[in-house]
Design a protein that fits this description.
Number of strands: 5
Radius of gyration: 25 Å
Helix content: 10-25%
CATH topology of the domain at 51-153: Alpha-Beta Plaits
CATH class of the domain at 51-153: Alpha Beta
Structural class: alpha+beta
Strand content: 15-25%
Strand order of the largest sheet: 2-3-5
Largest sheet: 3 strands, antiparallel
Number of helices: 4
Shape: elongated
Distance between the termini: 65 Å
């Protein structure tokens, strides 16, 4: 019975069925899929070996953030949490009082983030940028909520 034209066929000489299943563990043990015994977070790739367009992790430049909330509003996964309060400054020579926002809390929940980079692109003050770090996994999902102090540490 001829095969259906939509069903893919294997090239001649390529193993099929049980031979494919038996070859899988052997490839892993031989180290072709990574060093044997390496677990996530233990074997790290040096930053110099990262591809030039790799994104890594989003870092916060706290001095540049004005609490404008553009990043939180544009985030499709709603993983950015910002709290701020206004401080009114009155000039000593009279004039008009000016209110500025002071950043109280800036946090990113990495369990929700999909690394699209929209927050980095929409920030008019360049307060968010990609840092080359990539191994920041946690064993507890609650620890994936990084506050502003930890987000600033990714830069250096």
């Amino acid at each position: 019975m001829p095969r259906s034209p939509t069903r893919p066929t294997r090239p001649p000489g390529q193993p099929t069925g049980p031979a494919v299943a038996a070859a899988g563990p052997g490839r892993t043990r031989a180290g072709r899929l990574g060093p044997p015994g390496a677990r996530y977070g233990q074997a790290r790739c040096p930053v110099s070996e990262l591809p030039p367009r790799s994104r890594g992790v989003i870092a916060l430049v706290e001095d540049s953030c004005t609490s404008c909330m553009l990043c939180a509003r544009e985030c499709p996964s709603w993983c950015i949490h910002i709290d701020s309060h206004g401080v009114t400054e009155v000039p000593p020579e009279g004039g008009r009082a000016r209110t500025t926002a002071v950043l109280d809390r800036f946090a990113i929940d990495w369990s929700l983030c999909m690394y699209c980079g929209i927050c980095v692109e929409v920030c008019p003050f360049d307060a968010l940028e990609w840092a080359p770090a990539h191994a920041y996994g946690e064993s507890d999902a609650g620890a994936l909520l990084h506050e502003r102090e930890r987000l600033g540490d990714w830069l250096g």
